Amino acid sequence: MILGVEGSPRRGGNSDAMLKMFSAVSEQAGTPFYKAHLRDYRYEPCVGCERCRKDKICTKFNDGMTLLYPRIQEAKGLVLISPVHNYNVTAWVKGFIDRLYCFYDFTNSRPRGWSSRLAGQGRKAVIGAIAEQESMADMGMTLDAMRMPLEALGFEVVAELAVLNTFDAGGIKKNSDAVARIEDAAKKLVGSVSS
């Protein structure tokens, strides 16, 4: 199963359209795809209470992330999409990533550090960012802000998509280059989780 997550405030916007493209490729290949539009989930940001160290999942809140945790654990593939807001991911995507903190375990033995309970399971991911700006520099740290935490959690990021100069709702569908790159990334993800 592939979990597709997008963090745009706009229904029918470009993030939504990109997610639908991933879903279509996945379902055509016979791979189940679950779409999560973060605007439809109400959840709190991580507050660092550390209850998840003992409980192995966030038990501080019973909210929208509680509904997504089983999907995250089940999925071998993840698509994470964010529009660019102020050179970074949206608050919804940031909050989603922060709430994945509950999958880390602290190891007190040498060497000391963190390990992820999602790691070592062949999990793959694709990240995508959509910007109205015309240059990669104007995307700021959007792709890094998604890639780095996912890699730390144990996902192999098999493709990164940067779509520039796109603002009008659904405008991404008119960008043949972006559509082709999305379809290629979707096929790569489906192939990597199916093998």
UniProtKB/TrEMBL annotation:
Matches recorded under SUPFAM superfamilies: Flavoproteins
GO molecular function: oxidoreductase activity
Annotated ranges, domain NADPH-dependent FMN reductase-like: 2-119
Alphabetized Pfam families for the sequence: FMN_red
Protein name per Swiss-Prot or TrEMBL: NADPH-dependent FMN reductase
Organism: Halodesulfovibrio marinisediminis DSM 17456
Organism phylogeny: Bacteria, Pseudomonadati, Thermodesulfobacteriota, Desulfovibrionia, Desulfovibrionales
